[in-house]
Amino acid sequence: MQMGIQDQKRQQRNVERFKARLVAKGYTQREGIDFTETFSLVSTKDSFRLIMVLVAHFDLELHQMDVKTTFLNENKFDQCVYMKVNGSKYIFMVLYIDEILLASSDMNLLNDTKSILSTNFNMKDLGEASFVLGIEIYRDRSRNLLGLSQRAYINRVLKRFNMQTCKAGDIFMNPRHDHWVAAKKVMRYLQRTKDFMLVYRRVDNLEVVGYSDSDFGCCSNDHKSTLGYIFMLAGGAISWKSVKHSLIASSTMYAEFVACYGASSQAVWLEIYFRVASC
User: What is the 3-state secondary structure (H, E, C) of the chain?
Assistant: First the structure.
């Protein structure tokens, strides 16, 4: 038996409470005999950002709840994002392990949903959402603005590596000079941009705009290309990716088509998501 202790953090990463989980020699289990695969049912960050866009655009009520006991009733066929429509009222529910995010057009529907969840599961109502998945949520409802910030997380990373002032202390390692320079550049970038945030706002037309691009064989080790895409909605980025190709492109056109395919696949997913959400 092994007891695992985890601190539950909320606003500004302050510890709110501690959670314990008893593990009964899980390390002795063998894949294919004791289990086939392990998974944790969570929503994607893209789904989370899309819901935040809807919250900003339609000025939805945004609350969160915490499940005190997780994984006991989990099913791999369960969904991570739910939507309930009651006449002209509607509510979204986003699941991420033991955190639940509720976004609703009506306060009464929101309270009814909370009551149903609390009746069937051991849950804690955390009120209006302001810190979810390590992301701080800022709202200016008078201007229909919603911002997502990771300042608290960045500060924690800088403190961990003693780079709050971007001057690292002595460490018991001897990295190569180029590695050390690259690492410090990352820390300086984080320090310089930690107050930046993704901002979504009400717009006249909710239209997704996407861009894709690719270099051509710029990796000196295997001559593979790197693709990237980004999708924008309501004034902010909702989905993005940068990844090396799994193949070697024979031309710039080939590399661009591979990047376009990756972006197109994501565009199809976004289209399906919005079509379902608008039902």
Answer: CEEEEEEEECHHHCEEEEEEEEECCHHHCCECCCECCCCCCECCHHHHHHHHHHHHHHCCEEEEEEECCCCCCCCCCCCCEEEEEECCEEEEEEEECCEEEEEECCHHHHHHHHHHHHHHCCEEEEEECCEECCEEEEEECCCCEEEEECHHHHHHHHHHCCCCCCCCCCCCCCCCHHHHHHHHHHHHHHHHHCCCCEEEECCCCCCCEEEEEECCCCCCCCCCCEEEEEEEECCEEEEEEEEECCCCCCCHHHHHHHHHHHHHHHHHHHHHHHHHHCC
Q: Is 268 inside any structural domain?
A: yes
pLDDT digits (tens, 9 = 90+) for 127-157: 999 898 889 999 999 999 999 999 988 888 8
What domain count does the chain have? 3
Task: Give the model confidence (pLDDT) of 225-265 as tens digits.
Answer: 999 999 999 999 999 999 999 889 899 999 999 999 999 99
Task: Print the domain residue range for 212.
Answer: 203-277
Write down the pTM of the prediction. 0.76
